[in-house]
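Our collaborator T.R. sent over the components below with a one-line note: 'Predict the complex.' Nothing else. No constraints on interfaces, no templates requested, no preferences about which chain binds where. So this is a plain run: every listed entity goes in together, and whatever single assembly comes back becomes the starting point for the next discussion.
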Amino acid sequence: MTVRFVVLGCGRIGTMHAEYLHRRVSGAEVVGVFDVSGDSAGAVSAELGVPAVESLEDALSLDAEAVAICTSTDTHVDCMVAAARAGRAIFCEKPISLDVAEVDRGLRAVEAAGVPLHIGFNRRFDPSHRSVAEAVARGAVGDVEVVNITSRDPAPPPISYIAVSGGIFNDMAIHDFDMARYVTGSEVDSVYAVGRVRVDPAIGEAGDVDTAVIVLTHDNGALTTIDISRRAVYGYDQRVEAFGSAGMAQSTNHHEVSAVLASGDGYRQAPLQHFFLERYAVSYLDQWAAFVDAVEHGTPMPVSGLDGRAPLVIGMAAKKSMDEGRPVQISEIDL
Amino acid sequence: MTVRFVVLGCGRIGTMHAEYLHRRVSGAEVVGVFDVSGDSAGAVSAELGVPAVESLEDALSLDAEAVAICTSTDTHVDCMVAAARAGRAIFCEKPISLDVAEVDRGLRAVEAAGVPLHIGFNRRFDPSHRSVAEAVARGAVGDVEVVNITSRDPAPPPISYIAVSGGIFNDMAIHDFDMARYVTGSEVDSVYAVGRVRVDPAIGEAGDVDTAVIVLTHDNGALTTIDISRRAVYGYDQRVEAFGSAGMAQSTNHHEVSAVLASGDGYRQAPLQHFFLERYAVSYLDQWAAFVDAVEHGTPMPVSGLDGRAPLVIGMAAKKSMDEGRPVQISEIDL
Amino acid sequence: MTVRFVVLGCGRIGTMHAEYLHRRVSGAEVVGVFDVSGDSAGAVSAELGVPAVESLEDALSLDAEAVAICTSTDTHVDCMVAAARAGRAIFCEKPISLDVAEVDRGLRAVEAAGVPLHIGFNRRFDPSHRSVAEAVARGAVGDVEVVNITSRDPAPPPISYIAVSGGIFNDMAIHDFDMARYVTGSEVDSVYAVGRVRVDPAIGEAGDVDTAVIVLTHDNGALTTIDISRRAVYGYDQRVEAFGSAGMAQSTNHHEVSAVLASGDGYRQAPLQHFFLERYAVSYLDQWAAFVDAVEHGTPMPVSGLDGRAPLVIGMAAKKSMDEGRPVQISEIDL
Amino acid sequence: MTVRFVVLGCGRIGTMHAEYLHRRVSGAEVVGVFDVSGDSAGAVSAELGVPAVESLEDALSLDAEAVAICTSTDTHVDCMVAAARAGRAIFCEKPISLDVAEVDRGLRAVEAAGVPLHIGFNRRFDPSHRSVAEAVARGAVGDVEVVNITSRDPAPPPISYIAVSGGIFNDMAIHDFDMARYVTGSEVDSVYAVGRVRVDPAIGEAGDVDTAVIVLTHDNGALTTIDISRRAVYGYDQRVEAFGSAGMAQSTNHHEVSAVLASGDGYRQAPLQHFFLERYAVSYLDQWAAFVDAVEHGTPMPVSGLDGRAPLVIGMAAKKSMDEGRPVQISEIDL
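Returned assembly:
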């Protein structure tokens, strides 16, 4: 069986997904693409030799089993609702929305339609991070007590993007909140966050921070620390560590090149892989393989709608914590 | 010139210091040892062939330039005051006292006498951690923004020790608070701490925790995360990382053996060195070399009395933060 | 411009090349495939949606700029001669032939036709090994004095393959001989080889060895050691090290997963990536990018016909050295 | 029980041994030192507070259980014979002699006297290399098939030393020949060696080489490669690897500092520890502990006289191989 996809949104991430689905994912093909910019859709269409359509309606009338929602965040829920009504299996990029009520509207539509939904927290499919979560799940570290996540982008996005990003917690740390839930296997109780503007004053002027440290407490007693930054001059720094009663599991960074050069100055290794397109390429492919497999076998999607909702709430609590200078209970946000 | 030492206190750490000073530190010799337990003093006396004396007064009447205060914490200040009056250069193990007023009494005596005082925060002399602090100091990581410290003991001390330890923050994390000040080169403003009893319920029954996560904010805007545990089954886990605008410096752990074994199951390395006597042996020696050098040249001691006082206050703030579930300003503690 | 390829040979490596060229190499497409087994060609044809043809003549009459020769070794030269006469840019898998006279017949045809020829020593395009060669070329290790190459397959091929492989030196070590020339930038003068049957007695019965150590001397004074084995239970072990007057460059192995698991038994990492399809995927893609670029710009091919010939001669010398128990000069083989 | 030592020879290595024995080896003390240079003996005497004596006879009349022979190589055997006659347990630095007949004279005297003899191949006591040998011995790598040894000094000794060193094979590679026997647990059959003058032409003028590659074949079928150099600008490079049917064990190098610095240029680590006094300090201490233990318990010495003789013969074969350009059988040297 081949799962036929329509890809909604042909920006950077949508273009990547379309190419992966059409060329590199066994059992998948793209049967159409759509973007509000006809040029963007046209470029993907030309590259892959698949039709571009001119409206969401046309996209959902194509003969396909699944849609990949890769549009701008503010349109995710509308796409989701429409796709659910059309009976499609849905892949939706994170975050579902920056508004919890909107998220809930989307999830209700999905539930009503009974269609499968997967949220694109691709890092769960990174073999390194996954090995940490699996080590916890199979008891290899014993009871999980502390999780440390370091997540540093190589360089900040344009200020124009910052302004519509929803803020560092919901734009960037949302992956780390998901990772904390994934690795501990436990919901978050409270959040304490401290933020700073260290990378670019313009980010502060846009009402956001670019550097932050966060502490999460979990239902199962585990504690998570997260440190994030919008800039790391040595590359994309992505580490997860789970410590427990029987040991510790750590994912380690990926260097651009697996080599060392020794001289009188010491040993030198290459910087880290530049950013997510390189670092997480395998995770995107493995995520698609898991999605296609779940569609084919009618099994549950690996990352559910509620998995998409929870990190958004944590992000809101983090923002409130930073603003008020105190730890915030999740129950304060999500009544 | 040889600096002659009297060693006060012949427990585990005092015995180590006496042996190092007498046998392995160039320019130093031990001319007498004292312990309230004559047996302990006698053992060191026999091993090193130096006289044991029977009272603090006798100890301070020996012809010596310096004393090493390695007695139990509650007697540090009395020793310090007496040694200061006797005109000795003073090395004092950490913590000076668990009581800030006592600390201040000691420091006043030292100041009045005009004698040099060094507090035994040996980790500053560990070549790995030191390289991190020096990288920050010379600007190799740019402006320091985030410091991450992981500090996990292999196994908890006896419960009897827990009861008199002053609690995990002032017994164990005090080294990490010192490290945060040392690496950032900046004072601490506020502390947020969350603690858990995960290792041994008896530690909780003794009124303490055994696992904690701490966030410090610094005067210069830097943020420090610390995670501590009383138990790590894979050995003594001691890592410090400083991240900034121009890069990152990290100290890495020491394995028992520098070797790998590859088999069908993968690659295996030895556990970490067991505990501080092994891991920090070089730091203790380098600390003595720096102390002796400062005495010989009349230069300032590398770790001052105020450096000994500050982490105690941070530890008190951490305890209050944990108890009250909120970040605590240092100014709340230290008026 | 798009370079159109005909792929000759649809076995394991030809299928991989066809898929890479058609789907993952920018500026390339496959316009036809051929295999003596129509089934093999048909499978690739169906997967990629490109025509399969039934003869070499038909393949060379397709409108294309280039051919990829991926047939069995004994047919490489016939394909090369025909493709040269047809004016195609030629990619030929290694080895060109196991017979030097045949190699020379192929190279003469290529020279007469004036077409570009590249030999598929893909490891030169591995970023790790390439960084070693580039470090030597730019003088980062000073004058190169010693090269150490470790090359261990995870498991031996079928005995049926061993019998037609040309022997371990020309089948397996040929890559390492090429690497020695590539890294040192210097021709080989003499070869000393010792071989053993350690992996499977059946390999010995087939007249081959499965474990060997080789020493090469080079024109520029450098010395190369090579150790090869047909079996490494911990994965595909591929290391190259260049040592010189100013330092050392080393490529390091690729583990299946970038993570560690620490327990009371120590630290554990995953085994190495299984074999060449995983380990060298990037090298194959980068090799194609270089080939396509050279065709487009009319620049010299990165790995010439003579680069394909030299390792074969070294392999013959290695076999003679092993058989006669003495170092053999290249000039004894290649008059 | 305390084992009393007389140390013969107070050069660099003798001074180190005297200090280790007197101050850092439990159960050992130095009761006298001797050197043909009274000044050298006097310096050690002053530092340790032990008597210096003026002749070998006086040294052997001191009340002691053991001697440590650390004199110049050409006097080892005379010291050994005298110490054996005096009934002392003997530690002798490597090489016993550069002349096999002399070695045999010494061993006969030891055998006649029935005293214990240990040859100072300290690297067997390095925890990293030892772990490799132990992995082989307990079967963790299966049948050992290939051993790779890299042994590079940071910088060459003075030319005056080169002239009396016995040549690179017996001065420097002798440790590696011992390591090959130790790790494989098997005698050497044949040697093939290629040498070069790459570091300093003056070494060539002194009749020696400074860079070499060696292949050993062993009785048990194993093959060893050794590469040595008199100069490595990045520090003292000491690696041993044993590969076999069930896996591989590797000792890894020691960096000066356990830390990394990441910047836009990549990751940087410190150079390797400078030379043997740093790198092998633990091995010297562990060797003494094993010697003292064997004396106390009357158990066999860990490194026997024959273990001291075999590498000398291998070194002679290596020299002959290099000179004659062919592999040399051990049986050609040692009839």
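Summary for T.R.: Chain C has a mean pLDDT of 97.
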